[in-house]
Specification:
The complex is a heterodimer of chains A (about 300) and B (about 260). Chain A has a single domain, classed as Alpha-Beta Barrel (TIM Barrel), CATH 3.20.20.70. Chain A is built from 10 helices and 14 strands. Chain A has an 8-stranded parallel β-barrel with strand order 3-4-7-8-9-10-13-14, surrounded by 8 helices. In chain A, strands 5-6-12-11 form a 4-stranded antiparallel sheet, with no helix packed on it. A two-stranded antiparallel sheet of chain A has the order 1-2. In chain A, about 65% of the residues are buried. In chain B, helix 2 packs parallel to helix 3. By secondary structure, chain B is of the alpha/beta class. In chain B, strand 7, helix 2 and strand 8 form a beta-alpha-beta unit. In chain B, the strands form 3 sheets. Chain B has a 7-stranded mixed sheet with strand order 10-9-8-7-11-12-13, with helices on both faces. Chain B has a 6-stranded antiparallel beta barrel with strand order 1-2-5-4-3-6. A two-stranded antiparallel sheet of chain B has the order 14-15. In chain B, about 55% of the residues are buried. In chain B, about 20% of the residues lie in helices and about 35% in strands. Chains A and B meet through helix 1 and strand 5 of A and strand 4 and strand 6 of B. The complex binds flavin-adenine dinucleotide, flavin mononucleotide and FE2/S2 (inorganic) cluster (FES). Flavin mononucleotide sits at the interface of chains A and B. Chain A: Its cofactor is FMN.
Chain lengths: ~300, ~260
C-alpha cells in the first residue's frame, strides 16, 4: 500500500489519462491484468466530442505522436463507465476532466460526482485541442481559477496536469498550488509534428499533435525536478516511463508516483513489472521505503 | 511506423459498391485476418482487412471510402500495418468452415487459401444481398466447396448464411472462421453456441479505431476490456461469451450505440 494525496494506491504506478481509459471495463483490465496501482480515465468534457480525424496516433522511432482531439462521450454518458470502473477496478479511479473555463470544469466535475471518483485530475495541458487543455493551461490565472472552482465543489483530492509547452512550468505549478491543488501531474505531451515526404502531407489528421514516449523522458525529468523544488504539494511524474529504471529516475527527480501512458504499447503488465522492479531495487539498495527515493537527486548536489 | 507510400497497381471492380485495390507493396508476413490502416491523405485513415498480401477490398460507405473510390491506378495512399491478430490456421487434415457475409469475405478469402495450403479441407458459407454482391466466389471455390446464399434468392439458397448453416453438420469442423455484418455474426454466434461448437470458432470484429495500435482504448469491448485493434480483431467464440457482440458498439466519441 502506498498513500498519495490521501488515496491508498496498490503501488506507485498509475495509468495515465487518455490511455485505455474510454471504458470502465478497459480501466478494470489495466488494474487487474496490468497491475496498475491506480487508474486515470480518458479526459471527459461537457459535450460529446468525436476528436480529430485519423491518423490520430503514429509510432515514431523515438516515441509517439498523437492528436486524438479529446474524443469523449461527455460526462452524462461517461458516468456508467466510471461506475463500472469504481465497482470492479479494485484500485483508486481518478476522473480526468477538461473544459474551456472554470464554469465548464465545475459542470463536468459536478456531473461525475454521483459516480464517486476517488480524485479528479484537471487536464489543462492537452496541446492540440482548440480552446481546451494547454490553451487554458498556459495561463496561470486561469489555472488557479479552474483549480479553485473544482476544489470548491468536490471533497476528494484534485490533481492538476501541467503542460511542458510553456517557458516556465513552475509558474503554472505555483498557480495550481495557489488554487488549492492536492498534487500536480507533469507532463502532458510536447508539441510535435511529422510529415510524409512522399506526399508532403502532415501525417496527423490534425496536422500537428503531441509527442510522448521515450523521447520526452528527459523533458519530463527536468519538469518534475523543477516542480519538486518549487512546490509544497506532491508532483506525479509522467512522460516516457517504460521501465522500472525510468520510474526510479522519475522518483529521484521528485515524483511521488509515476504515471505510464505510451508504454502500454509494449505490454499491458508494464505496471506490475515496474512496481516489482522498484521493490527489488529498494531491497538491493537497502532502502526501507519507496518514499526514500522521492527527490533523492536534490540531495546529491 | 509512419505510413508507407502504396501506389495502386490495379483496381478491380468486384461489385458496384466494392472494389479491390492492388498495391505495389507485399505484406509478406501478414496473417489472414490482420488489417492495415489505410490513409486517404487529407481525409481520414481507416482500417481495412488485407484481402491478399498486396490488396484491400473496400466497400464504399462514407467519406474515406468514397475518396478511395475516386483514386485511379498510379495514384497512391498511405498504409500502416499489418496490425492485430489474425485467424488461427488449421493443421493438416483438419476441417475448416469459413462463414462470410458481405465485405466480411475480404479477410476470409486469404484465410481459406492459407487453410487449404496447410492441408485442411475447406468449406465456405458465402452470403450476400444478391448474386452481384457475392465476393471472391472463384477464389473460395478454388480453396474448397462453397455454399451460397443470397437475401433475394438470386443465387444459391434464398436467405441468410444462418439458413445454410442450419442444414450443415457443424460438429465435423475443427475450425470455424466468421466475418460479416455484426447482426449476422451475432446470429451465427448464437447458432454455434446452440450447436456446442463455439470453442472451435473465431470471429473478426469491427469497432471504431483511432490509434489502431492498442494504446488509446477507443476500440475496447465489454466486458473483457479487450482491444479489438490489438488483442483482435479476431477473437475466439469463447472470448466473446457474455460480450457486447450484437448488442452495442461505440461511436468515435466513445458513446454506446445500439446495434
Ligand atoms: C479490423 C477491421 C477491418 C475492416 N476491413 C474492411 C474491409 O476489408 N473492407 C471494407 O470495406 N471495410 C472494412 N472495415 C470497415 C471500414 O473500416 C469502414 O467501413 C470504413 O472505415 C468506413 O470509412 P468511411 O470514411 O468511408 O465511412 P464513414 O462515413 O466515416 O463511416 C461509416 C461507418 O464506417 C465505420 N468507420 C468509420 N471510420 C472508422 C474507423 N476509423 N474505424 C473503424 N470503423 C470506422 C463506422 O462504423 C461508421 O459508422 C474494417 C473495419 C475494421 C475495424
Ligand atoms: C493516445 C494518447 C491520448 C492521450 N489523451 C490524454 C487525455 O485525454 N488527457 C490527458 O490529460 N493526457 C492525455 N495524454 C497524455 C498522457 O496522459 C501523458 O501525459 C503523455 O502521453 C506522456 O506520457 P507517456 O510518455 O508515458 O505516454 C494522451 C496521450 C496519448 C499518447
Ligand atoms: S484503436 Fe486505439 S486501442 Fe484500439
Amino acid at each position: 500500500m502506498y498513500t498519495l494525496t490521501g488515496l491508498k494506491l496498490k503501488n506507485p504506478t498509475i495509468l495515465a489519462a487518455g490511455i485505455l481509459g474510454t471504458t470502465g471495463a478497459s480501466l478494470c483490465r489495466v488494474a487487474h491484468e496490468g497491475g496498475a496501482g491506480a487508474v486515470v480515465t480518458k479526459s471527459i468534457g461537457p459535450m460529446p466530442k468525436t476528436g480529430h480525424s485519423n491518423p490520430s496516433m503514429v509510432k515514431l522511432d523515438c516515441g509517439f505522436l498523437n492528436a486524438m482531439g479529446l474524443p469523449n462521450p461527455s460526462y452524462p454518458s461517461f458516468i456508467q463507465e466510471l461506475e463500472i470502473a469504481k465497482k470492479d477496478a479494485g484500485v483508486p479511479v481518478i476522473a480526468s476532466i477538461f473544459g474551456g473555463n472554470p464554469a465548464e470544469f465545475k459542470e463536468v466535475a459536478e456531473g461525475l460526482l454521483p459516480a464517486k471518483p476517488d480524485a479528479f485530475e484537471l487536464n489543462v495541458s492537452c496541446p492540440h485541442a482548440e480552446g481546451y487543455g494547454a490553451a487554458v493551461g498556459s495561463n496561470p490565472c486561469l489555472v488557479e481559477a479552474i483549480t479553485a472552482a473544482v476544489k470548491d465543489i468536490v471533497n476528494v483530492p484534485v490533481w492538476v496536469k501541467l503542460t511542458p509547452n510553456v517557458s516556465d512550468i513552475t509558474c503554472i505549478g505555483n498557480a495550481a498550488e495557489a488554487g488549492g491543488a492536492d498534487a500536480v501531474v507533469a507532463i502532458n505531451t510536447l508539441k510535435g509534428m511529422a510529415i510524409d515526404i512522399e506526399s508532403g502531407y502532415p501525417v496527423l489528421g490534425n496536422r500537428s499533435g503531441g509527442l510522448s514516449g521515450k523521447a520526452v523522458k528527459p523533458v519530463a525529468i527536468k519538469c518534475v525536478y523543477d516542480l519538486y523544488t518549487a512546490l509544497e504539494i506532491p508532483v506525479i511524474g509522467v512522460g516516457g516511463v517504460s521501465s522500472w529504471q525510468d520510474a526510479v529516475e522519475m522518483m529521484m527527480a521528485g515524483a511521488a508516483a509515476v504515471q505510464v501512458g505510451s508504454a502500454v504499447y509494449d505490454r499491458l503488465d508494464i505496471f506490475s513489472e515496474i512496481s516489482t522492479g522498484i521493490e527489488a531495487f529498494l531491497q538491493r539498495k537497502g532502502y526501507s521505503d519507496v518514499k526514500k527515493l522521492i527527490g533523492l537527486a536534490h540531495e546529491m548536489v | 511506423m509512419l505510413p508507407l507510400n502504396a501506389t495502386i497497381l490495379k483496381i478491380y471492380e468486384e461489385s458496384p459498391s466494392i472494389r479491390t485495390f492492388f498495391f505495389d507493396f507485399q505484406f509478406e508476413t501478414m496473417n489472414p485476418g490482420q488489417f492495415v490502416m489505410v490513409w486517404v491523405r487529407g481525409v481520414d485513415e481507416v482500417p481495412m482487412g488485407l484481402s491478399s498480401k498486396n490488396s484491400i477490398t473496400v466497400q464504399k460507405v462514407g467519406e474515406a471510402t468514397s475518396k478511395l473510390f475516386e483514386l485511379k491506378e498510379g495514384d497512391s495512399f498511405g498504409l500502416r500495418g499489418p496490425y492485430g491478430k489474425g485467424f488461427s490456421l488449421p493443421s493438416e487434415g483438419e476441417k475448416t468452415l469459413v462463414i462470410a457475409g458481405g465485405v466480411g469475405a475480404a479477410p476470409l478469402v486469404p484465410y481459406a487459401e492459407a487453410a487449404r495450403s496447410a492441408g485442411s479441407e475447406v468449406h465456405t458459407a458465402l452470403g450476400a444481398r444478391s448474386a452481384g454482391d457475392l465476393l471472391f466466389e472463384k477464389r473460395f471455390a478454388e480453396a474448397g466447396e462453397v455454399y451460397i446464399s443470397t437475401d433475394d434468392g438470386s443465387k444459391g439458397t434464398k436467405g441468410f448464411v444462418t439458413d445454410v448453416l442450419n442444414s450443415l453438420n457443424l460438429s465435423v469442423y475443427d475450425k470455424i472462421a466468421v466475418c460479416g455484418p455484426e447482426i449476422m455474426m451475432a446470429s451465427v454466434f448464437r447458432l454455434l453456441e446452440d450447436r456446442e461448437v463455439l470453442d472451435k470458432s473465431e470471429f473478426s470484429l469491427h469497432r471504431y479505431f483511432k490509434c489502431g495500435i492498442g494504446v488509446c482504448g477507443a476500440c475496447c469491448i465489454d466486458k473483457s476490456g479487450l482491444r479489438v485493434c490489438r488483442d483482435g480483431p479476431v477473437f475466439s467464440g469463447v472470448q466473446l461469451m457474455d460480450s457486447e457482440l450484437g448488442k452495442y458498439t461505440r461511436d468515435a466519441s466513445g458513446r454506446r450505440v445500439k446495434i
